[in-house]
Amino acid sequence: MQTGLRGRDFISDLDFSKEEVETVLDLAWDLKMKRAMGVSHASLRDKVLAMLFFFSSTRTRGSFEAGMAQLGGHAAFIESRTTQVSHGDTEKELGAIFGRYFDGIAIRHVDWGIGNNYLNNVASASRVPVLNMQDEIYHPHQCLADLMTIMEKKGRNLRRKKMVVSWAYASSYLKPMSVPQSLILQMPRFGMDVVLAHPPEFELMPEIMEQAQAMAKKYNAGFEVVHDMKEACQDADVIYAKSWGPLMTTHDQEEGKKIQDSYQDWYVNDELMALGKDDVIYMHPLPADRDIEVASSVLDGPYSVVFDEAENRLHAQKAVMALTMS
Ligand code: CP
After folding, report:
1. What is the mean pLDDT of residues 318-324?
2. By the 8 A CB rule, do 266 and 294 touch?
3. With a 6 A CB cut-off, is 82 part of the ligand 1 pocket?
4. In terms of domains, do 159 and 304 share one?
5. What is the pTM of this model?
């Protein structure tokens, strides 16, 4: 068991080794059981986490805030627009100053080409851990909860399980590509055969693809890219289908929306789910565009594990905070 996480940042999925991720999951299950039994687990008493948001959130805010309280500490919710960031506070100043007030700094910043740099710059100036609540490249805490959920449903040995990470149509906005990128980085390390499916214009970042291929090779897992959702979903154990913007093709919102609108048939319905194995599960980080990205009958139906997935955000994040901030 690798436990040397105290003081460490968690910005990219690969910041923690596979063995360290296993440690996080072991603790997450322990904390989940303790909460179920009403057993106190206040290992972060008197500790305070800053939660700095540059973008909206339901689950991330709720789970980090509740998690810190359950660990005996406190989480300070800070919206960037109510700070002096727009009046000149730099990442260096923020990291240096918040690092003296708080015991951890969690940040969500998904602006393309800005968010991940922002987190890394704060981390360079901070004496306390920086935790990524989602940037434009990675959503590592979501991915830990996803891995935890898959193991709960399919068992801890995931070797040769087929995981489809698919693009799906959405009309609401051009969503970040951080969730699929985190998934293709992390899941091959646990032996899952990943099939990434998307229309040609929705490629992921080339450097992330290279890293994912390297992980698949290192851990002897499959990694394949297809441009057909139905082909991808044949015999799947897990179908994780969500939308992301065509950000490798264009950053123009109008052009991106036009491209996106030409793939409305990339839709998750019962017919698509039936292509998977009998015990296939449907996953989505939420929020989803209901009846546009996924049919309500799937989202609310027997394939869906989305509420367990959302719950596991709480337990996985508590484990990360307890290990890094203690
Ligand atoms: N899945 C997720 O990160 O949800 P929120 O955007 O609501 O935080």
Report:
1. 99
2. no
3. no
4. yes
5. 0.98
